[in-house]
Amino acid sequence: MATKRLARQLGLIRRKSIAPANGNLGRSKSKQLFDYLIVIDFESTCWNDGKRHHSQEIIEFPAVLLNTSTGQIESEFQAYVQPQEHPILSEFCMELTGIKQAQVDEGVPLKICLSQFCKWIQKIQQQKNIIFATGVSEPSTSEVKLCAFVTWSDWDLGVCLEYECKRKQLLKPVFLNSWIDLRATYKVTVKNRGLSGALAGIGIGIPQDEEPFWFCLIFISSGLDDSRNTALLAWKMIRDGCVMKITRSLNKGPFLLPSWTWNSDLASGDQHAFLQQEFGCGTYRTLLQKPNISKQEKGNILWLTMLSKPQKNYSDCMLNTAS
After folding, report:
1. CA 93, 100, 157: angle at the middle one, nearest 5?
2. 157 DSSP 8-state letter
């Protein structure tokens, strides 16, 4: 935090993404398990008053869709979110994130933001034939495109969103339960090169002894810019031969998100057959009544019910399925 604040005072913070919007980015050297990556980097409420705050809230929800074959960012999502537990941003938070009080005042509550995000996910899923799957060990051989989420550390999805949804009793989309921690992947795959080597590949040359300082400069800006920059670093790693794999999953129990979940054209008979084979019952309603189904699994089932009926209103589903 101190380094970031000093960097801002010195006028060294980049406010724009360093990722090129287009152009020849080359091709990946390795066959990736995932055809697309969705990079997320939240901005949240924060303080420097010396007190321990246990209720950080998301104030910017950004995401970018990266094509792992071309390195192109093909779609973006951004929403400013109203903090409800601490509606007034601290001066430190506004200085650090660059987000103004008026921007969050004009934003939406988190539950509406999640609904908007789900609509964006549905749109790109339909446009690009994307599905989400965990436990992938081989590239897809069908026409569908596999996709995974990427964050820099486990904080965004494993801590920030997870606990805010629990506090506010919001049903978090189940597809956000698994992701790739790019920081952990980076440490394993390019640990011998250092951050300076990775950043040199995306056009930033820095002295090795200044890595920590410059790392802060690159990843301080709007959440959307941070997401773009993280996507660019992921693309650099992919071009160097790194195969992106899921590093963290919050899914528990035997119920896993089936690969056809986002395929709204799947025949109802196929859904019935899947349920009968996996759980010995033919409908979601019957499955929900089973005594050994946990709360987490019930949440998954409710999402499957919603997603199997594309005529449903996503905003209504988000509000009505809150636990």
Report:
1. 55
2. I
The Cα–Cα gap between 238 and 27 comes to 9
List the end-to-end C-alpha distance of the chain, in Å, as a whole number.
35
- Sign, Cα dihedral of 279, 170, 219, 75: positive
Element containing residue 211 per DSSP (H, E): helix 211-218
User: Could you tell me which of 86, 97, 224 has the C-alpha nearest to residue 168?
Assistant: 86
Residue 41 · residue 57 · CB < 8 Å:
no
- Give the largest CA-CA distance in the chain: 64
Q: Which residue has the higher pLDDT, 184 or 255?
A: 184
Query: What angle do helix axes 223-239 and 182-189 make, rounded to 10 degrees?
Result: 30
Q: 36-249: what fold? A: Nucleotidyltransferase; domain 5 (3.30.420)
Q: What is the pLDDT confidence band of residue 55, given thresholds at 50, 70 and 90?
A: confident
The token pair that represents 11 in the structure block:
């006028």
CB 89 within 8 A of CB 114: no
pLDDT digits 0-9 by tens, 162-174: 999 999 999 999 9
The domain segmentation of the chain, as residue ranges, is 36-249
The yes-or-no verdict on residue 111 having pLDDT over 90 is yes
Instruction: Give the global pTM.
Output: 0.69
